[in-house]
Specification:
Layout lengths: L4 H6 L19 H13 L3 H6 L1 E8 L8 E3 L1 H13 L11 H7 L12 E4 L2 E6 L2 E8 L2 H8 L1
Parallel strand pairs: 1-5
Antiparallel strand pairs: 1-2, 3-4, 4-5
Amino acid sequence: MQKTKSDSVLHPESNAVNKNIKIQSTNNDFPKFWKTFRKAVISFDTIQIINMTQFPFKTRGTSDYDPTVEHNKEKFVSVFKSFIKQWNGLNMNGTTELDHIRKTETPDETYVQKEHARVGNLEFKRINNEWKLVFAYLNYDTIESLEK
């Protein structure tokens, strides 16, 4: 019987070479990625969040005319921390991006495409068969605070 890749992932002891295989993405695996990402954000597990992010990480303001800014790993944590604290614009009660992430246990399927997904003000992209955080929209107060 021939071994399959899934056999090696499910039973890594059966093939030492494949112990570090990453489970590859399929068209409908974003909810699984989101569950892991959401848990990392809620617990502010920066190592896990960084591992789930494509660098340079990009941000821009809410207008299409705002410039896109690229951030390296060293700058990412402060940018992401500012992002999750910002008002998400969904209601006048001052809910934050973190509140929205906590509330979104499963992303709306209409915002998940084959290679792209958006949850609130975060954008994700499938890169080499893995989902990655690639972009965030920052409000102007957040941009101003990061420039100080």
